[in-house]
Amino acid sequence: LQNIVSKHSAQFRGNAQHDALEFLLWLLDRLHEDLGAASPTQHPCVPEEVGGPCWEGQVVHTTSSLTCPHCLKQSNTFDPFLCISLPIPLRQTRALNVTLVLQCERWRFVRVGLAVPLLGTVAELREMVARVGRIPPEQVILAEVSPRGFLRSLGDVEELGAAGERAPLYAFQPPPTCHTGAAPSSLAAATARVALIGWEGGPCPPPAAARSSETLPGAAGRILLLLCNAAGAQLARFGPPLVLWEERGISWEQLQQSILAQLRALLRGEVQVQGTGALFRIRLAGGSAPCPYLSPQDPRPLCHPAVDRALRLSGAGGPPHVKLMVEWDLSTKERLFGDIQEEVVQDAESVRLQQEAHGQHSCTLEECFQLYTKEEQVLVPCPR
């Protein structure tokens, strides 16, 4: 084949490498010349207004129409072509998995698959999560949670390009708040719920009234806490992330009891905790600066200035909140919780569907032609 082609075209002679596209264009051009030199009786005739009295040996034309948006004057150009380089439509979305931690049993710890826009913002993702979970968008907290704990919360103005790339993405919904007199606070409920955990010398004492946020100056109100438990030298995360409201003015002992109450379902039966010291350390997480630890000697650890800074930084999307890492000694963790690992997350059907839809990029020839012939806005001066 190469010898035959080289007899008719000097550019393909010799043993050098030749461009395959150039060969195809040359072959199409020769076929066109041979077909155009056929008998005149074989020439198809076309109407007068398209190409003349007889369309002899003409190649196919593309019609380019230009319409002025001001005077609406239209100009048509007929361009001959032998082949067309069609653009391939690119995807405008990508698959992103989000684990829902909502306040309803149906959507608690469920991983859903979403088709998020490539050039969108976190605010759009927040709206999508709200529609899937059927909750108001202002209640959605989006955060990246790695096997070692919290990384960062996502603000509404951030771009979606890097969301969920460093660590799995979680969507948290705060529990309903309790108003004074309407329901017992989480601190009072914690005292009742952790009765199975005995301290040396008797059960947990009730919280002191003098330490409530209603009597401590500067500690009024509640704070939304996101908690992750981690243990060992590598601080491997275990158990599910937790979301709870807490009083700003509580003591370290009361905060510890409240956290234990949230973990009551993971405890190994009737566990007896010896001593009255701190069972774990609590570290602020998710900041760019070195994250400080809350001190057990602080009478109001949640009123620390670092907590206030974390609250201000988290106001870019969703309810203001503070992310805390509860760090356990490995032996204490195994004694109280056994060999429990991370939470078990169920995948919704949307995870598989989005993976299949975005697994391989495919398009039809019709979609390529639609993109090729798509109308464009051309900025040219209007002819007078």
TrEMBL record:
<dbReference type="GO" id="GO:0004843">
    <property type="term" value="F:cysteine-type deubiquitinase activity"/>
</dbReference>
<dbReference type="InterPro" id="IPR038765">
    <property type="entry name" value="Papain-like_cys_pep_sf"/>
</dbReference>
<dbReference type="InterPro" id="IPR050185">
    <property type="entry name" value="Ub_carboxyl-term_hydrolase"/>
</dbReference>
<dbReference type="GO" id="GO:0016579">
    <property type="term" value="P:protein deubiquitination"/>
</dbReference>
<protein>
    <recommendedName>
        <fullName>ubiquitinyl hydrolase 1</fullName>
        <ecNumber>3.4.19.12</ecNumber>
    </recommendedName>
</protein>
<dbReference type="InterPro" id="IPR001394">
    <property type="entry name" value="Peptidase_C19_UCH"/>
</dbReference>
<keyword id="KW-0378">Hydrolase</keyword>
<dbReference type="Pfam" id="PF00443">
    <property type="entry name" value="UCH"/>
</dbReference>
<feature type="domain" description="Peptidase C19 ubiquitin carboxyl-terminal hydrolase">
    <location>
        <begin position="1"/>
        <end position="90"/>
    </location>
</feature>
